[in-house]
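Page 42, continued from yesterday. The earlier attempt failed because a stray header line got pasted into the input along with the sequence. Redoing it now with the clean sequence only.
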Amino acid sequence: MTYHPDGRLDGEHGPAGHRAAGSPDQSALARFVDTYGWRAYAIPVLVVVTALLIWSIVNTPAGETVGTTSRAPQGTAGRGGESRMTVPDMPEGEVAITELPPGGPFTEQGKGTFRPVGELGMTAGEGKEKVVRFSTEVEDGVDTSSFGGDDSFAALVDATLSDPRGWTNDPKFRFEHVSASDNPDLRIQLTSVGTSREACGNDLGLETSCRLYTEKDGDRVLINESRWVRGAAPYNGDLGMYRQYLINHEVGHSLGYAEHEPCNGDGKLAPIMMQQTLSLNNKELFQLAPQEVYPDNEDTCTANPWPYPRPATV
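This time it went through. Structure tokens are written below.
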């Protein structure tokens, strides 16, 4: 039964055989109904509803809530037994810069080893100064079936690096997709959250991707799977654009663009080397990392996944 603002209860059509108030043959209940009208029906209903709500609160297990959706992560088991995580959907506009957006499951901890993925042979760019022979790999234990499979990751890497808005718009650069066993210059790897945290560091308490270079493993770009699956708040749910940004930003570090860049004017397209995963606003980035290049001002850029969003044409 539903209470309406006009005092009507669903299923109520008015008392039949209504007698004048105070007539001698009326029972006490009838006189009560005549005196209080709809309230005679509503009051008992409200008493019952209140009692049920109190009972529900008292009997709710510790850690659960009544009438709200918890934002706490919920663990699930992946296809290969690996630890996976899901987060309930949250209302649009309530994702803080320190949180992952809602979305699909991702792998909490992979195995630390990698499998080669994708087709070989893509080439793009002139390479007047630098030729990058790269491989595409996925960490063992990462289940890619929820977003198109292993080859979908490799295909987007190829498409992004060969796009005229990408790094090859500069004739200095050329990319060649080679086998992981062919001594590539750069390994582009989709990694679990645990591996990303361990390798990239987690100083800010945020899920990030990174570029690493060591004598042992060479040059690597680690793409955090949680970000590949969930994206980032500044991209407002556009996963395709955000994934292109991730690739171009981290590969940019590998090409020698070591420093980050601030927003260079309110409303302008964000530089590709701005930390767009975290924010498009200089002040917010300054507060997160005062040691970085961001000024303490309110300039806010527009999300942009490309080094050359308006490519030069011949």
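Notes: Residues 1-26, 38-93 have pLDDT under 50 and may be disordered.
Reminder to self: strip header lines before submitting.
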